[in-house]
## 1
Amino acid sequence: MSSVISRIGMLLIGLSLAIAWSPLPVAAKTYQFTYSNFFPPSHVQSQLADEWCREVEKRTQGRVKIAYYPGGTLTSAAQSYDGVVTQRSDIALSSMGYSRGRFPLMASIMLPSGIPNGPFATAVYNEINDKFSPEELSDTQILYLFAHGPGLLHTRTKLIDNLDDLKGLKIRGAGAVADIIKALGASPVTMPMPELYQALQKGVAEGAFYPEEVSKGWKMAEVVDYTIANYQIGYSYGFCVAMNKEKWQQLPADLQEIIREISLEWTIKHGKAWDSSDYEGIRYSLQKGNTMIGIPTEEAKRWKEAVRPVYKRYIEKCEDLGLPGQEVFDYLMQSIKQYKNGKFESKYLDE
C-alpha cells in the first residue's frame, strides 16, 4: 500500500514539475491603427466607417483595434490620401477627386456619363479597378472603393433652365468635375466639400455640382434655392478606404483575409447608403422650400453635347500617360448601357 502511495506521490511531483517547466501560452499580438475620415460624425458615410472599425475589432477578436477620427480631425479632406502614404494616419477615407491629376485612370467615374445611382457607381468603380489594376493606386493598400449617385447642379438664387443661363456663373466642382463646368460655359471654383457651405453662403460660389445627399448630409439645402435635375450628364466621385502599405504588411495573413471579407461587405453598404441618403436629401431640400426642376429632353441633349469634349480630354490625358483611357471609357459606357437593360452583373452589387 505504501509503495502505491509512493508511486502516486512521485507521479504528482513529476506532473507538477512538467507544468512548472512548460512555457506559458503566448498572448496573440494586437495591432492598433488610426483611421482618418473627413466626413462629419453625423454623416451616414462616417457612421458606416465607424461601424467598419468596430466590425474589424469584433471579427478579429480584438487583435485589431482602430482609433477613428471623423470630421477631418486627423487629416483634412485634401490631405487624407497623402496622409496615409506619409503615415500621418494608418487608414483614411479619401475622395479621389480632391487630388486632381493623381488618379488619371480612376477619374473615369467623374465623367458626365449619366451615372444612374450609388450602387451601380460603386460596383462599376470597383470593376474598373479589378479589370485594369491601375498603377496609380499602388502606393497604398486599397481596402475598398465606392462612389456616390448622380451629381447634379444646384444654384443659390438663379433658376437655370437652359444652357445659356450658366455662362459666367461661379460653380463649385472639385477635381475633374471642373472640366464639366467649363464645358457648360460656367467658371469652376475648386474647393473640398467642408468649405462649400460658407462659400455658397457668402456668394464666393453661385452654385455647385454634388449628389442630392449633400443637401442634408452637409446641410447645403440651407444655402441653395434650386436643383437642376439633368441626369443625362450625371457624374460620380470615387472614394477609397486606403491603408498604409507597411502597416498592412505587418498583419498576418488570417487578419488580412478577415479585413478583406468585411471590406467587400462594406463596399456594398456604402453604395446602398448613397442611394438612401440621396432620397433623404431630396426630401430635406423640398422641406426647406427649395425647387427641383427637370430639363426638357431637347435641352438636355444640348447639355450632353456640350460635355462631349470632356470625354475626349479624359481619353487623351490617359493615353498621353500610356494608360488605357479609351478602354476604360468604353467599359464604363457599356456597363451603364448593360445596367439600364438589366444585364450588368457584379459581385459588388447586392443580390
## 2
Amino acid sequence: MSGSFKQRTACFRHMLVWLYAMGAPAACDEQTDAPEALTGALRDRNAVVRGEAAESLGRYPEFWAVMPLIEALKDEDAVVRRKAAASLGNIKDLRAFEPLMETLKDRDPTVRWVAALALGHMSTVEVLTPALKNPESAVRWGATKALGCLGDPSATGALTEALHDSDPMVRQEAAESLGKIRDSRGAAALVDALKDQDPAVQWEAAAALGHLKDPKAVGPLITAFKDPEVGFRSQLIQALVEIGPMATEPLIAALRAKDPGIQSGAVDVLARLGAPALEKLMAASKDNDPVTRRETANALVEIGRPAVSALLAGLGDADWRIRLEAASALGKIDDPRAAEALGARSEQLGPVAKTYPEWIAKAEPGTEGLLIDALSALGSADMARAFLKCGNPDLEEAGRRWLEDHGQELRLVSRKAGRSPRWGESLKVAG
C-alpha cells in the first residue's frame, strides 16, 4: 500500500470522526451510531484520528464515553493522552479521578498539566487535599494546581502548608494557586515565600501577593527590592502596582532607605502608579533629606507627561520648597507645556537673578520667595552659595537644597571676594 493511499485513508477516517462529533452520523454510515464510531476511532492506527476522537468524546457527557477515555490515558501518543484527560475533565465523572491522579505522573509535562486542570474541574477540596501528602511529587504538584483551579477558599490552609513542600515545583504551584484563590489568610505564608531559595517560588509569591491586594504585604514586597535579580524585581513592581494607591505612603517612605535597590524599586512603582501618587509625591518634595527629594524628583520625571499638570500647579504653590522641586522636575520632562511655562518664568525672573545681591542686601519684606524662584529658574552654584551665607533662614535652606540637588559642594563663598551680601545690610548702612 502506497504512502499517499495511507495518507488519504487516514484523512477520510479523520473526516468521519469530525462528522460524528458534529452530530452528523448519517453522512457517514446509517448503520453506525456516534458512540460506536468515536470509541472505535480511539483504537485507530493513526494518532491524529485517535486524538480527534478523544477530543470529540468530551462533548458527550454520557457515561459510555468515560471508560474508553480512561483507557486512552495510556495511549502511546502524548497528544491523545492530553486530549483524553481534557475530555474527562469536561465530563466530570468521578470514575476518572484515580486514573487522572495516576496521569499526573505522565512522562509528558503537557499531559500532566491538562490532567491537573481536569481534576480541578471535577473534584473537591476534601478529595484533593490528601493527595498533597502523596510520596510522588508529580501527584502533589497536580493536586496543588487542581486546588487552584477550584478557587475554593477552604483550600487556603492546605496550600499554605504546600508552600513548605520539599519540591520547588510544588511550592511554586502552591503560591500560584493561592494567588488564584485570593484569600487574605494566605498572605503571611506568601510573604515568607518571598525568601524561598528557589527564584520561581519567589516570583509566584510576589505575583500572588499582588492579586491578594493585602496592605500588610506592601512592606515585605518593598523590602524584597534588595534582591538584584531583574525578573524578580519586575514582578515586585507589578505586585505593588496591583495593590495600588494604598501602597503610596510606604513607597514614599522607602525613598529614604539606605539601600539603592529599595530606592530605585520604589521610584519605579510610584512612576507606574502615576496620577494616584502625584499628590503625595509633591508633598514629599519638601522633605529635608536630599536623597528623598532626589528620588521623589526621579519618580515625578518617570511619570512624565501625566505629571506635568500637577507640577505646573506646583509652580504656584505657597510653599517655596514645592515650587523649587516642581521647577526642577519640569526641566527634565520633554513637554511643550513645561517648556513654555519655564520659559515664561525665566523671562519674568531674569532681572531678579541678575541683581540678586542687591535684593538680598535690601531685604524687602516678602522678597524671599521671589529670590528662591529666581534661583530655581536661573540659579547657579555661586548664587546658591551666596544664599547659603546671607543670614536669612529660608534663603539659606533654599541655597543648601539647590546645591544638594545639583550635586554641588556646600562650601561657602568668601565674604572677602565681595560676592556674599548679608540679608538687610543696605538697611544697616542707611541706618
## 3
Amino acid sequence: MILHVSPMPLPPPAPPPFAPRLSRRRFLGVVGGGAAGFLATSSVAAPPAAPWPDLASLPERLPPPRIPSRQLRLDALGASANGTADALPALRKGLQELARAGGGRLIVPPGTWRLDGPIHLTSGINLHLDEGAVLRFTPNPPLYLPPVLTRFEGTELFNHSPCLYAYQAHHIAITGRGIIDGNGAKVCTEWRQQQRPDRDRLRAMGAEGVPVAQRVFGAGHFLRYGLIQFFGCSQVLLEDFTALNSPFWCIHTVACSQVRARRLRVEGDHLNNDCFDPESSSEVLIEDCFFRSGDDCIAIKSGRDQDGWRLGRPSEDILIRNCELHSTGAAAIAIGSEMSGGVRRVRVENCRIGRARQGFNCKGNLDRGGVVEQVRVRGLTAESVDEFIQLTLDYQGLRVGGHAPRFRDFEFRGLHCREAVTGFSALGVAGAEFADLRLEDVTVDRARQPTVIRHARSLRFDRVRINGTEMRPPPAG
C-alpha cells in the first residue's frame, strides 16, 4: 500500500488533553455541557431520516491519509529489539522528530520491542510494522498515566491511556504485517473483578451530568484501558497488522470520521475483548478482516444514556464487508447496547460467521433512548449460533426506564445459517415496538425454536425458511 504524499507540511496537531491542565471552559468546548443540555435532548423527537446513500461507494469516498515521504527506523534511534530493554523512549523520540518535521513514517523492524507505557500518535504519522515486528506493551497500569480523555462503556471520563492512543489527530495510519500485543490478560481479568464501584460511580456521574473534567479515574481505580483508541480523529487507516491481548476493547474509534480498516487480524479471548467498536463515528469501512473474540467481534455504539444524549453524535455510514467472525461469548456483529446517540445507515455484506452466541444482535433498553435505523444486512452466513438474528429492547436496564429507543427500517436479505437455537427473535416491549423489519431469502437449516416475536410492527417475511418450513410473521396486534 502506497500512501499519498502530502506536498505541504500538515498543521501542528492538538496535544492530548490531560486532566490537570484543562479548565472547565475548555472541557465544555470539547465534550459538551452539563445536565440541562442532556435532559432537554432526551425528549426531542428524532429528525426525519436522511436519504439512504449507496454505501457500496464508500471506499471511493475515503481518501488515503496524507503522509509525508520522510521516514525513520526504530532501530536507528537506539532501540533494541531483544524484548527486555524498553524501546519506548526511542520510539517517542522518533515520533516527536517526525511531528516537528510535519509528519512521516516510523518503521518498526522485525523483533520484539518492549514498551513501558503508551504510544500517542499525532497528525501525519504512519506507524508501520514490518512483518516479524512485535510491539509488546508492559502490563503495569501506572505506566499508562497521566489520564487521557476517553470513553468507558459509552461514558466519557479521564482514565489510564490506551496502549496506543490518538486525540484529534488527522491523516494517521497503522500499517504493516507486524503484531501489536497489549499483554493485557492480567489487567483484563483481575480489574474486571474489581471494577464495579468505579463503573457504577462513573455511570452515576454520566446520569447526573457531572462535568467531564471532574470524572478523573486513574491511580487507585480499576476501569480497564483499551489497546488502540482514536478519539476525535479523521482520515485514519488501519491495515494488515495483528492486534492481540487487549486489557479491554481492542480497537475503539470515538467521534472519528473517515476510518478505513482492512486485512486486520484481531484476537481477544476474554469477556469485553470486543475486536472493533466504532462509537459515534462516521464513514467507517471495515473489510477483509479476521476477528475472534470472547465478546462482540464488531459492536457499533454511540454513547450511553444521558452522556450519549448530551453529545448527540450518532454512528453513521458504516460498511462492513467480507469479514470472518468468531465469538465465544457474544455477537459476531452488534449494534449497542450503548447506542443513545443513535445509529443509522449501516450495511453488512458477505461476512462469514463460525461460532457465535448471536450472528447479528441489535440491543438496547428502556434507559437508552436513541434511534437505530436504515440497517441492511446481506449475504451473511453462519455455521453455529444461539440466535441467528436478534433484536431486543430489553437488554440489561439498570434504572427505571422511560427512555425507549426506536428500532426501524431493518432489512435482512440473502442470509443462511446451518444451526441455531433460535432462528429470528425480535423482543420489543409495550410502547416501544419495532417498526418496518423485512426478511427476504433467509434460510436456517436447523433451529430448536424458529422465531420469537413480540411487539413488532410492519414485519415482513419473503421466502424465509426455517427447518425446511416457510415462515410467516405473526398477525399484527
